[in-house]
Each structure stands twice: as C-alpha cells, then as structure tokens.
Automatic annotation (TrEMBL):
InterPro entries per UniProt: Zinc_finger, Znf_C2H2_sf, Znf_C2H2_type
Protein name: C2H2-type domain-containing protein
Renumbered residue ranges of the record's region Disordered: 1-22
Transmembrane region(s): none
GO terms for MF: DNA binding; zinc ion binding
Family: Belongs to the krueppel C2H2-type zinc-finger protein family.
Superkingdom: Eukaryota
Cellular compartments annotated: Nucleus
Length: 347
C-alpha cells in the first residue's frame, strides 16, 4: 500500500467519518444520523423554509432565523467580558474576542493561515483543493460553502435586503451597509493601537496595519502596480503576456479569468440568469442588471463619479475606477468583494 494512501486512511477526517455513517451523495460529507443528512441536503438544493416576516430573507435552520431577527430588534445579548462591546450574534463576539487574545485555534496545514472557526477552515481548504460542492440551481455556478451559495442566490433576484436608514441606498451584504453607514455617522471604529489613526472600514484598517508590520506587497515585475493578494497579481500579470488560458470554444475571444469567460459564453448560449424584479427583463450578468435597475431609479440621469486628480466625471463607477488605475498605477488594491483605490500616502 502506498504511504500516502495509508496516511489518508488514518487521517483524523477519515477516522471521524467512521462515526458518521450517513454520507452525502453530492459532497461526501459524513453525518451522524439520517435526519442530519436530510438537513444537510438542503444546503445543496438551496431550500430555505424559515422566512423572516420583516424582510425577504429566508434561512435553512430555525436558529438562523432567530439570530437574524436580532438585526431588526437591535438585541445584542452577547457581551465581551473585557470591554463594554455587545453583539447580536455569538460568532461576532468570538471574532471580536480575538482582538484581545489574538487566538486562531484552527490552522490550515497547507498555508498555515489561522481561523477562529472550524467551519471557516473547512471552507478555506477548498481554495486549495478547488472543491465547490454547493451549486446554484439557476446558473450552475459552484461555491465552496452553503453561505456563499445563499448570498449568490440573491444576485438572481436583484433584491438588496440591507437598507440604509439615512438614504435610499440598499446593499446585498450587511458588512456593505455597515461600511456605508460610516459615511453618514463619521464613525471610525477601527483604531490602530500603534498610532493615532482610525478607519471607517476593516479593509482600510488592515491595509494600514501592513505599514507597521512591514508586510510586503505583491509587486508586478513588469510595471509599478502592487497588489495585496498574490492571486490578484497573477491575474494582472496576464495583461503583460500573451497567456490567456480562458478561450471561448465558439469564437476567438480570450479572457483573463474564468468568470469573464462564463459571462462571454452567455452571448452564444443566450442565457440570462439575472432577472429584474421591477420589469422582469433578464440579463447575462449582474453588472448589466445593476445598470438596468438604475434606469428605474433614475441614477443614470447624471454623471456623479468625479476624479479627485482631474476634472473628468464618469457615469459609472467602473469607468471611474479604470480611469484611476491609469492615473495611479502604483496604488491599486484589489479585494475579494470590491476593487478599491488606496493611496498609500494616506495610510
């Protein structure tokens, strides 16, 4: 028997599955009972039977609905014993506690990245294996976790459940709303403990911390652009070379990333999975749906994205961002959820 096979047989995960005889046919996960397997199967089908009576969100489990309702009631039963902060969810308290202890009990064996929750580690390991067992029933896109699939499902309806109480803006994710609210309140909750600077968003705070730790940026060897993630640098490097691995099988179009190829392929298949909930018109991409929705809200009536370096004004945010890249080739930060220009002198 091969040594690697022996390791696999005796791995903690395999030993654990011996006590979980009920296995999912879609992802292979082991469950201790048939009822637990039944609940787990709903994560693949997208079924969410518990509906919030105050908004359109729905949940797989009853306890998730109970936790969600605290967003509406403002209840914060989870209090930090080291400071006066309180939280609506237990996981938020655990995440906050690490600011005091710096504890990351779960570590990835491949890259040593630390996590507070075991579930976060499991989802992270799929970035190494490429496993995406949670598949969208509408567009076929795969995801590494059921929560990511849940967030993705909302993009098909165009519904944004997190509404700002100060203006008409609405957001798909709660963290986006929190970041937006700081513009109204002026609050900067992320305080650097090594200097006097404070920040309104966690992303800007993390970028600033690298200034103290001397953490190196991923710098392009062909130009002056710098990125905070190696994967973003890898995508950027393809702009300098002829390597475009994502080739359309119907025409000569090549794309820098798989997501761009998927959107392009829909021009051949006619697939339009993103539906406007105001007029039922459908679109091939989330971006084109967003532009269309603005025709209902009137947001397209004027150019509102002003460049801070020149007099140019843009109708769409993506046009503004592309312009900023050309003006500031060495200050680009790409995050998982957004493309953000960061002036390194300001942090």
């Amino acid at each position: 028997m091969d040594i690697s096979d022996n390791r696999k047989i005796n791995s903690p995960l395999t030993l654990q599955n011996r006590d979980k005889p009920h296995h999912c046919s879609q992802c292979g996960k082991g469950l201790s009972s048939s009822s637990n397997l039944g609940h787990h199967m709903k994560t693949h089908t997208g079924e969410r039977p518990y509906q919030c009576s105050l908004c359109e969100k729905s949940f797989l489990h009853k306890y998730e609905l109970k936790n969600h309702l605290r967003i509406h009631t403002g209840e914060k039963p989870f209090k930090c014993i080291q400071c006066d902060k309180a939280f609506s969810q237990n996981y938020e308290l655990k995440r906050h506690t690490r600011e005091h202890t710096g504890e990351y009990p779960y570590h990835c064996p491949q890259c040593s990245q630390g996590f507070i929750f075991k579930s976060s580690l499991i989802s992270h390991t799929r970035t190494h294996t490429g496993e995406k067992p949670f598949v969208c029933s509408q567009c076929g896109k795969g995801f590494s976790s059921s929560s990511n699939l849940g967030h993705h499902n909302i993009t098909h309806t165009g519904h944004k459940p997190y509404q700002c109480s100060h203006c008409d803006k609405a957001y798909l994710h709660n963290y986006e709303l929190k970041n937006h609210l700081s513009k109204h309140t002026g609050e900067k909750p992320y305080q650097c403990n090594q200097c006097v600077k404070a920040f309104s968003t966690e992303n800007r705070f993390k970028i600033h911390l690298r200034k103290h730790t001397d953490e190196k940026l991923c710098v392009c060897s062909q130009c002056d652009k710098a990125f905070f993630k190696k994967c973003d640098l890898t995508i950027h490097l393809k702009t300098h070379i002829d390597e475009n691995p994502y080739q359309c099988c119907h025409c000569d179009q090549v794309c820098l990333c798989n997501c761009s190829l998927i959107i392009h392929m829909r021009t051949h298949t006619g697939e339009k999975p993103f539906l406007c909930n105001l007029c039922e018109k459908d679109f091939p991409s989330k971006g084109s749906l967003g532009q269309h929705v603005r025709t209902h809200t009137g947001e397209n009536s004027e150019k509102k994205y002003q460049c801070s370096h020149c007099d140019k004004v843009f109708l769409h945010n993506y046009g503004h961002k592309n312009h900023l890249v050309k003006k500031n080739t060495n200050v680009v930060s790409v995050t998982r959820h957004s493309f953000e220009m960061i002036n390194l002198k300001d942090i």
